[in-house]
């Protein structure tokens, strides 16, 4: 008997463990989410539990999980993966941690280029990227430019990102257009509002995953998650592997998405 995920298993490029294979085979390709967003939480706790005094060791270990998630979403032919890498609030962390996170980001952006290109992944960013250092901005702009022609997964890094900030920036733009007489406020639609957010072309996430067991949205994609399915796993981000992603997808596929409507069943 054929299993739903056989077509997906045939696309896989990175070797699967037996457990990952078993999970993948249960995934129904037609029900896959198109866009997954992840709140990568628990790096500090992971570092403490692993006996490190420095929280940054958790962020470093989290890079492997980022790579794993990008590979896995690419193999599944998803449209987009949005990762909450640095929030507007994260600037308030101790300078030592912010500096270390920025160094990690620069290293990731520079070193990941060959793999992103090999896997046809296009990098974009959402957030107040003008707040990043010049060095960081340069690395980001370069990686976005050299992956711009890739046509597979879009990796959207949320950097200096805040959901309220994103909404306020859109409101400011709309108010400016209204004052200039190029937009009629009365006829403003949800679509027209969405079009002024950072990356409307990616579509709203179908699935939001949060690691480390916290049931919070933390100012992430506030407008876009209106009808997103939320999945919380106790796994800390540095421990997040392909099996965890497949489990989240399988859970998502079981849900009935109604978007506030009643799904009519034949009587
Ligand atoms: C939350 O864990 C995680 C972050 C604030 C940063 C996430 C960054 C990475 C995974 C590495 C860099 C990413 C890229 C894409 C280069 P926390 O520190 O709040 O953990 P805690 O709640 O256990 O303290």
Offer a quick outline of the entry.
The protein has 267 residues and is an alpha/beta fold.
General description of the model:
With 267 residues, this protein is an alpha/beta fold. It has a domain at 33-161 and 204-253: 3-Layer(aba) Sandwich (Undecaprenyl pyrophosphate synthetase). Helices cover 43% and strands 13% of the residues. It has a six-stranded parallel beta sheet with strand order 3-4-2-1-5-6, sandwiched between helices. Helix 7 links the parallel strand 3 and strand 4 (154-161). Helix 4 (56-75) runs parallel beside helix 5. The radius of gyration is 19 Å and the shape is globular. The two termini are 31 Å apart. It binds farnesyl diphosphate. Farnesyl diphosphate binds at residues 40-45, 55, 59, 62-63, 66, 83, 85, 90, 104-105, 108, 157, 212, 237. Residues 40-45, 55, 59, 62-63, 66, 83, 85, 90, 104-105, 108, 157, 212, 237 line the site of farnesyl diphosphate (FPP).
* Average residue pLDDT: 96
Question: What proportion of the residues form beta strands (DSSP E)?
Answer: 5-15%
CATH class of the domain at 33-161 and 204-253: Alpha Beta
What is the topology, as strand order, of the major beta sheet? 3-4-2-1-5-6
Instruction: Compute the number of helices.
Output: 10
CATH topology type of the domain at 33-161 and 204-253: Undecaprenyl pyrophosphate synthetase
Given helix and strand content, the structural type is alpha/beta
Report how far apart the termini are. 31 Å
Order of helices and strands: HHEHHEHHEHEHHEEH
CATH architecture of the domain at 33-161 and 204-253: 3-Layer(aba) Sandwich
Question: Gyration radius, to the nearest Å?
Answer: 19 Å
Number of strands: 6
């Amino acid at each position: 008997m054929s299993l739903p995920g056989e077509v997906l298993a045939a696309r896989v490029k990175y070797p699967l463990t037996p457990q990952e294979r078993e999970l993948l085979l249960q995934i129904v390709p037609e029900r896959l989410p198109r866009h997954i967003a992840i709140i990568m939480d628990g790096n500090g706790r992971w570092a403490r539990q692993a006996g490190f005094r420095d929280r940054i060791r958790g962020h470093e270990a989290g890079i492997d999980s980022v790579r794993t998630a990008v590979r896995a979403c690419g193999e599944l032919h998803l449209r987009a993966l949005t990762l909450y890498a640095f929030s507007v609030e994260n600037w308030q962390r101790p300078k030592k941690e912010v500096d270390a996170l920025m160094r990690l980001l620069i290293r990731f952006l520079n070193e990941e280029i060959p793999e992103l290109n090999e896997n046809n992944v296009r990098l974009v960013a959402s957030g107040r990227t003008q707040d990043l250092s010049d060095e960081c901005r340069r690395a980001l702009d370069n990686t976005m430019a050299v992956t711009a022609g890739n046509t597979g997964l879009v990796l959207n890094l949320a950097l200096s990102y805040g959901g309220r900030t994103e909404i306020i920036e859109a409101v400011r733009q709309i108010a400016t257009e209204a004052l200039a007489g190029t937009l009629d406020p009365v006829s403003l639609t949800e679509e027209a509002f969405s079009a002024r957010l950072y990356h409307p072309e990616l579509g709203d996430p179908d699935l939001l995953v949060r690691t480390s067991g916290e049931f919070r949205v933390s100012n992430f994609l506030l407008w876009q998650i209106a009808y997103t399915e939320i999945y919380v796993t106790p796994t800390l981000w540095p421990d997040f592997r392909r099996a965890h992603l497949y489990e989240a997808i399988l859970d998502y596929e079981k849900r009935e998405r109604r978007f506030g409507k009643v799904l009519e069943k034949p009587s």
